[in-house]
């Protein structure tokens, strides 16, 4: 293996594929690249020092998916009379596709909003999936001399099954609507993407099975060549050094993100474990907003709008303004406003929470208010009362489509659910 082979491999170089395939040293290089992909996927939300998920996750996922594709799609390859250690040969090229996942390392969350960033990450997932399938099809054509249709079916049919199963369980993990949990917009977007992937994977799997059955009689009993296994491959010193430098260098470029993740974890620990919040506020005193990851779950965990988080946020907002740094109070004020709407009024399509300078505002789309609730508008159109089917009432102070104040009405008593001053 030459120093540039792992990178020429990514564009389907025939010579690089042949030099890589079936070498046990390729497994070493591939493993380093798999770990580097784990860094690219997880650097902005997993603490590398205190969690091994970034290591075990990519290795486990790649091994499981590789076994499924190999066993279900490559039967005539591993049953070839001259086949020897063909799974390891297949794994050596399978792991070499790992750098495709480096695209996940683009920090789109840093220069756009969370919804747009989520859309970009979904697009990255589609690009990586297509790229890796194309590379594996190319490898089978080069190494076994099988025709394109058989290589295509051998890879894509079991891959669509993996995609179907993964999308199914991903959709279940994102449902999370029991016990007062409400999904924020970016998670709803992921849930929708999982559903679409599930549907397309199912239909693709069904169509490919029909094609496979229709062409079954025309399949060769064995392909021209088995997957190769090199007897005494030369140690690829320069390729190992280069890939190791890339892997090690990735930690340098992610150091700032990791520092923010650590601060998030520590703040979360303090907010959850302390009976009072003085320690958490003390931790924040010498820090700025830039010292934290504001995209991924600024504590106390805003990923899911659970009642427990709402209660915790209310406790924070009830603290004297002087005890909480202004930047943190602004974030928590925004989160509490959003969580309150999600968990209490529960009309995410009709309301959106935004920030204007130092003030958190709510924008109201009256056309999207559900028809099964009672709405009463004041004479001067400056107030609106929303009454849910349960009898719970909310009074909204309006400035056009902007909600400037929201209050809950209980037995004739109007109380504001959060302080406006911070």
Report on the structure:
Helices cover 54% and strands 9% of the residues. Strands 1, 2, 3, 4, 5, 6 and 7 form a 7-stranded antiparallel β-sheet that branches. It has 2 domains: 249 residues, no CATH class; 116 residues, no CATH class. It is α+β, with helices and mostly antiparallel strands and 422 residues long. α4 packs across α6, α7 packs parallel to α9 and α8 packs antiparallel against α9. About 2% of the residues have low confidence. β6 and β7 form a beta hairpin. The termini are far apart.
Number of helices: 14
Question: Which structural class should the secondary elements be placed in?
Answer: alpha+beta
Estimated helix fraction:
40-55%
Which of globular, elongated, flat, extended, rod-shaped describes the shape? elongated
Overall domain count: 2
Strand content: 5-15%
Question: Poorly predicted ranges (pLDDT <50, ≥5 residues)?
Answer: 174-181
* DSSP E strands, number: 7
Distance between the termini: 62 Å
Average of pLDDT:
83
